[in-house]
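Service request form, structural biology core

Requester: graduate student, group of Dr. S.
Request type: structure prediction, single chain
Budget code: on file
Notes: please return the result as structure tokens.

Sequence provided:
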Amino acid sequence: CCEVLEHLEDPAAGLAELARVARGHVLLSTPWEPAWRAMNVARGRYLRALGNTPGHIQHFSRRGLLRLAQTRLDVVAVRRPLPWTVLLGTPRR
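Core staff response, request fulfilled:
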């Protein structure tokens, strides 16, 4: 589920559904907002919103994404290739 959770009003419910239907691993990624916003501003994008991409209604730090994921997944790995946080996990059954 790449680049989706930050668009959901209830990302916990979205993650619960992903964990329910997944047959193996779940790959999550979200933008790391400080870097994402800075890059948007540097490109002259979304200046009135201080670089916040329209539709991003959730903002996840590495720790926040990890905390959310641990409610439904056994986390295998977390990486932060700029400007994202990427997490791999397996659903808890």
